[in-house]
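User: DUF4178 domain-containing protein. Structure?
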Amino acid sequence: MTTAIVIVLGLATVVVVLGAFATARRTRAREPVRTPPAAPGESQPRDPAADSDFFDPRTIRVGDTVYVEAARYRAVGALHCTMQGEKWTEYLLDEGARRYNWLSVEERPGKEGEPLHLEVLLWTDVPTQGMVPARHMLIVDGLEFYPIERGTAAFRSEGTTGLPERGLLDFADYRAGDGRLLSFQRVQGGQWEASYARPLTPGSIRVDRLP
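Assistant: Predicted structure:
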């Protein structure tokens, strides 16, 4: 969602990584979807990477060098998340000089007979200055964001994340009129952090991997 890298972090580094965790979730902003069973003679929904020549981001491993568009990162950790049968992975990408981003990858069914597809999002933290998620509209950076979903997911940590090996993640998701996605999250009752999501197009990710 690879051998774990176990590193004892100094307090300063832990604080940096925990702050970067503001981007450690993909947005669950969508209506519930159900994949209907295939009718006789019809095939099941296809694997989203089956007919693609692009790198499959579901195969990223901790330790990989990951190129996202023009930027070079190292995948230093991963969170494997589950909620009500759904699964997705968050990869912690180290850009160097203690600069981090999270890349979320999830395989999702389409609506009513549409094929499976990959949802890949790059997260950037948002300075919300102590703001907490409300159950009504809120304004961030001059934009109005409206609530769309909130809940709690379980996670398992791999490699270096600055987070417990296992835990719970509370989240609250919002969408602006222009389609921008905003997510608040906190780990095991900690402080709320916020991040924006940016979808990535096929072919924008590649990986260098040691043998």
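The radius of gyration is 17 Å. Residues 1-51 have pLDDT under 50 and may be disordered.
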